[in-house]
Automatic annotation (TrEMBL):
Keywords of this entry: Cell membrane, Membrane, Transmembrane, Transmembrane helix
Places the protein is found: Cell membrane
Alphabetized Pfam families for the sequence: MS_channel_1st (PF21088), MS_channel_2nd (PF00924), MS_channel_3rd (PF21082)
Sequence ranges assigned to domain Mechanosensitive ion channel MscS C-terminal in this UniProt record: 182-264
Protein name: Mechanosensitive ion channel
Top-rank lineage group of the source organism: Bacteria
Membrane topology: Multi-pass membrane protein
Residue ranges crossing the lipid bilayer per the database entry: 22-42, 62-80, 86-105
Domain Mechanosensitive ion channel transmembrane helices 2/3 residue range list: 65-106
Entry-linked InterPro entries: LSM_dom_sf, MS_channel_1st, MS_channel_C, MscS-like_channel, MscS_beta-dom_sf, MscS_channel_2nd, MscS_channel_C_sf, MscS_channel_TM-2
Mechanosensitive ion channel MscS domain mapped to chain residues: 108-174
């Protein structure tokens, strides 16, 4: 036992009056191992079938992430204490330095606070489909400072959390199981309106991704400068890949318009030229 105590009291590193002993290093390793063990147990408990069954996957992820950060903050504080650093004195003595760092890292702190809000408020969760600045993305993970998302081009995007909390964000996943979408088309004047409406609706019926046949509706919106303007309304549950669905329906509309001799309008302009030339008598 005495030999073990001597080994633990052996100095590894010395800097001025400060010394790092094997016992302190062992304490650090034990704290890290225990922290990882606690987080592993918590993670297994969260995703166990019989535990927290009433919490959805997004909420479980947010709560687990928040607990993870809290546990690691406590672990880091214990590590500092184990090597002889008084956390309370450190914070009090470095107040001025922390103010300077805070000013320099203001945006970073803003992102961190926004991350805490997202994880605790759970207004945005993993798997949600968002529209941010006109770009539609699906959230893959929510971190303390940034969130990872993927857009419709399968490109991974890193989004600062402050952008989500301060910008106008449309959360498509907060809608019902289906969302209404629109397709606009203009046809030439002289076309049979009833036939056009019928073709538009039947073109949507041919696609497998629409929801509820009764909710599909085509409307005559107005009389444009060069066309009769129509709007096709339909519901779909496939929100993230709606661009492809709209493209497929447009292809069917174009094909059915050709078969029914319906012409898609294009801008036209009649140009009238008026000559101001007049014959004047010539003087000899």
């Amino acid at each position: 036992m005495e030999t073990l105590n001597q080994i633990l009291e052996t100095e590894i590193f010395t800097l001025g009056t400060y010394t790092l002993k094997i016992s302190q290093l062992a304490s650090i390793l034990i704290i890290i191992i225990v922290t990882k063990g606690i987080l592993w147990i918590i993670k297994k408990a969260f995703f166990h079938k019989n535990i927290f069954s009433k919490i959805d996957a997004g909420s479980s992820y947010a709560l687990l992430k928040f607990i993870k950060y809290v546990v690691w903050i406590i672990a880091i504080a214990l590590v500092l204490e184990s090597i002889g650093v008084k956390v309370t004195l450190l914070l009090a003595g470095s107040a001025a330095l922390l103010v300077g760092i805070g000013l320099g890292l203001q945006q970073t702190f803003n992102d961190v606070i926004s991350g805490i809000i997202l994880l605790s408020e759970r207004s945005i969760e993993v798997g949600d489909v968002l529209e941010i600045d006109g770009d539609v993305v699906i959230i893959e993970s929510i971190g303390l400072r940034t969130s990872k998302a993927m857009n419709r081009d399968d490109i991974s995007i890193i989004i600062p959390n402050s952008l989500i909390t301060t910008s106008k964000v449309i959360n498509w996943s907060h809608q019902s199981h289906q969302t209404r979408f629109k397709i606009h088309v203009g046809v030439a004047y002289g076309s049979d309106v009833d036939v056009v409406i019928k073709v538009l609706e039947e073109s949507t019926f041919e696609h497998s991704e629409f929801h509820d046949r009764k909710l599909i509706e085509a409307r005559l919106l107005g009389f444009g400068a060069s066309s009769l303007d129509f709007q096709l309304l339909f519901f779909s549950a496939n929100i993230f890949r709606i661009g492809k669905i709209k493209s497929d329906i447009r292809r069917r509309i174009n094909k059915n318009f050709i078969e029914n001799n319906i012409i898609i309008a294009f801008p036209q302009m009649d140009l009238h030229l008026k000559s101001n030339y007049s014959d004047k008598p010539q003087h000899k």
